[in-house]
Amino acid sequence: MVLRFTLKNSLIFLVLSSIITLILLTMYMVDRQWLKLTEMGQILSEQAQDLHTLRQQLAHIDKNQLGTTLAKEDKNKSISSIFSRAFYATEQLDYSTGDWLVQAFSVGLKTLTPLISTDAYAAEIQGYILDSLLSRNPETLEWEGMLAQSWEVSGDGLTFRFFLRKGLVFSDGQPLTAKDIVFSFNFIMNPVIAAPRERAYYDKLKSVTALNEDTVEFKFKEPYFNSLALAGGLPILAKHFYEPYLEQPEKFNQSKGLLLGSGPYRLRDPESWRPDQGLVELERNPRYWGSVQPPVDKLLWKIIANDSARLTTFRNGDIDVYGARPQEYKKLLTDETLKNHSQNFEYRSPTAGYNYIAWNEDKQGKSTFFADKRVRQAMTLLTDQKRIIDQIMAGYADPAVSPFNLNSPQHDPALIPQSFNLTKAKELLAQAGYTDQDGDGVIEDSSGNPFKFKLVFFQDMDDTRRMVLLLKDIYARAGILLDPEPTEWPVMLDKIKNRDFDAITLGWTGGIETDIYPMFHSGQIVAGGDNYISYRNPKLDSLIEKARSTVDESIRMSLWQACEHILYEDQPYTFLVRGKSLVFVDKRIKNLNITGLGLNLGITPIEWYIPKAEQKYMLH
Question: What residue stretches are annotated with the Solute-binding protein family domain (predicted)?
Answer without folding.
Answer: 144-514
